[in-house]
TrEMBL record:
Subcellular location: Membrane
Domain Thioredoxin positions: 49-196
Pathways per UniProt: One-carbon metabolism; methylamine degradation
Xref: SUPFAM superfamilies: Thioredoxin-like (SSF52833)
Membrane topology: Single-pass membrane protein
GO cellular component terms, semicolon-separated: membrane
One of the protein's GO biological processes: methylamine metabolic process
One protein family per Pfam: Thioredoxin_2
Protein name: Methylamine utilization protein MauD
PROSITE patterns: THIOREDOXIN_2
Organism of provenance: Burkholderia stabilis
InterPro entries in UniProt: MeN_DH_accessory, Thioredoxin-like_fold, Thioredoxin-like_sf, Thioredoxin_domain
Length: 208
C-alpha cells in the first residue's frame, strides 16, 4: 500500500515536471514567433531619392496659396514629414489626426506637409472636411505631380522624413502610427529603416 502511494506521488511529480518543461518550451517558442512577427516599421520601397541623399528642392504653393519649400536647408532647424495622401484613401484619413501628436512627441522640431495631386476642388474639399478637422486649418497641403513622380509614389499613405538640412532620413509606406513613428526612430538610430535593421538582425542570428 505504501509502495503504491509512493509510486503514485513519484509519477505525479514526474508529470508536473514534464508539464513545466513543456510550458517553458511553449513560452520560448511564443517569444521567438513574437520576435519574428512583430511590426518592422514602414515598408521601404527602393525608389525615388535614397535614404541619406540630399532631397531635391521644390518651391510650391499650398491650397491656401502660401509658399511651401520642400527640401534644402531650413534656417530654423526644422525637419519635414512629407506625407502623401489622397481623398479616397481611408487609411490616410485614419492617420491624419495622429500626425500632430507623433511630431510633437519628437525631441527635434518637425513640420508636416501633406502632398498629393489631382483636381484642386476635390482636394480643397478634402482639406476642409477632413484635414482641417484632424490637424488644423493651417496645415500645409500641396498638389504636385512632379513631387509624386520624383519620390515615385505608387501606394498610399507614403511618408518621407527630411531633416533640417534637406537630407532624406527615412521613408516608406505607413499604415499605422507605429509605422510613422518608425521613421523617426530610424533617424535617431542612424539606420535606413527599422525594417532593414530587423532583417539584418535576423540574418546575423541565422548565420550564427
Amino acid at each position: 500500500m505504501i509502495d503504491a502511494l509512493w509510486m503514485s506521488n513519484l509519477l505525479a511529480w514526474v508529470a508536473i515536471v514534464a508539464l513545466m518543461l513543456v510550458g517553458f518550451a511553449l513560452a520560448r517558442q511564443v517569444g521567438v514567433l513574437s520576435e519574428r512577427l512583430k511590426p518592422v516599421g514602414a515598408l521601404v520601397i527602393d525608389a525615388g531619392p535614397a535614404v541619406g541623399s540630399v532631397a531635391p528642392v521644390f518651391e510650391l504653393f499650398d491650397l491656401a496659396q502660401r509658399a511651401v519649400r520642400i527640401g534644402g536647408i531650413d534656417r530654423a532647424g526644422v525637419g519635414t514629414l512629407l506625407f502623401f495622401v489622397s481623398p479616397t484613401c481611408p487609411i490616410c484619413k485614419t492617420l491624419l489626426p495622429l500626425l500632430p501628436s507623433v511630431v510633437a512627441n519628437e525631441p527635434r522640431a518637425y513640420r508636416v506637409v501633406l502632398a498629393s495631386d489631382g483636381d484642386v476642388r476635390e482636394h480643397a474639399a478634402f482639406h476642409r472636411n477632413a484635414v482641417a478637422r484632424a490637424m488644423g486649418a493651417d496645415t500645409a497641403y500641396v498638389l504636385s505631380q512632379e513631387l509624386g513622380r520624383t519620390y515615385q509614389i505608387g501606394k498610399l499613405p507614403y511618408a518621407v522624413l527630411l531633416d533640417e538640412h534637406g537630407v532624406v532620413r527615412a521613408k516608406g509606406l505607413v499604415n499605422t502610427r507605429e509605422h510613422v513613428e518608425s521613421l523617426f526612430e530610424a533617424r535617431e538610430a542612424g539606420i535606413a529603416s527599422i525594417q532593414a535593421y530587423a532583417a539584418g538582425k535576423r540574418g546575423a542570428a541565422e548565420a550564427a
